[in-house]
Design goal:
about 280 residues; five-stranded parallel beta sheet; 5 strands; about 55% helix
């Protein structure tokens, strides 16, 4: 298993790219429900309106078409709604400007902006993001396990295709979670946020000699679909709240069609329609 692109060589003609959080590993829900939303409530002292605010946070980040949105864009949406419905958020305009103009949505970019502006909302957003990371690190191994059917699916996929983890999550977290759950034995390469966005990672894999027709992205969010579409490759959805079903269907039915070159077209389009409908409320 490789973690560096310049060391990687394809071993099969087929390639399956797989997202991690919320797709293979059941960590997306727990990170938002236990960490992202509650840390925001604490940072901005929103306990008075906690229930509706947390429900809205989870809807935006987990159960609608914005599932998988970047944490800082998700925070922007939440703070705008809170400012309009519940209580004024000091310095919000500066944070919105940063979130829409920065070339990098990251703690490091926030730190640089804070040095320039000393804006209270930017300061609190940075403290929130740091608190979220601490909270996520404190989650137990028992709270970070694969969805039912993932291990079996990986074993089957690896018989016919190279397997790449393509994730926007932290590299160490991804490697730790996959290793502890004994999933890395079926993986050829791991590409995470330090390499680039998902569309870039897929493009670099295609440069290894895989044809677009022989490459598939498995993901749980619209961002995964867009990364696949940007590169002209197929997409198979792992549907929120229906993950075990999605993986079982892939192993029992979809994989054989992909291997036989029968996945693209109406067959794949129907899965995408089902995927979008599942996230539309």
């Amino acid at each position: 298993m490789k973690t560096l692109l310049d060391e990687y060589k394809k071993t099969k003609d087929l390639l399956v790219c797989i997202d991690s959080d919320g797709c293979a590993i059941d960590t997306m829900d727990i990170k938002h429900i236990k960490c992202f939303g509650p840390c925001m409530v604490t940072e901005w002292n929103l306990q008075e309106w906690e229930a509706p605010i947390l429900k809205s946070w989870n809807d935006v980040n987990l159960y609608t078409l914005t599932r998988g949105i970047n944490r800082f864009k998700g925070l922007e949406k939440a703070l705008v709604e809170i400012d309009e419905k519940y209580t004024k958020i000091k310095g919000l305009d500066e944070y919105i400007r940063w979130a829409n103009e920065t070339s990098e949505l990251s703690n490091e970019s926030l730190e640089a902006e804070l040095e320039k502006t000393d804006n209270i909302c930017i300061r609190k957003a940075l403290e929130w993001s740091r608190a979220v990371n601490v909270c996520i690190d404190a989650l137990s191994d028992e709270e970070k396990v694969p969805f039912r059917g993932v291990k079996e699916a990986l074993a089957e996929i690896s018989k016919y295709a190279d397997v790449a983890i393509v994730s926007s999550a932290n590299r160490k977290a991804v490697l730790d979670e996959w290793e502890k759950n004994e999933l890395l034995e079926h993986v050829n390469i791991v590409l995470t946020q330090d390499i680039g966005v998902k569309s870039f990672c897929i493009a670099k894999l295609l440069d290894q000699g895989y044809s677009r027709e022989n490459t598939l992205m498995i993901g749980d969010a619209i961002g995964d679909l867009k990364a696949a579409e940007t590169n002209g490759i197929a997409f198979y959805p792992i549907m929120a709240t229906k993950e075990a079903f999605s993986w079982a269907r892939f192993t029992d039915e979809v994989l054989a069609n992909f291997v036989a070159g029968k996945y693209m077209g109406i067959y794949a389009e129907n899965f995408i329609k089902e995927f979008k409908a599942n996230l539309t409320k």
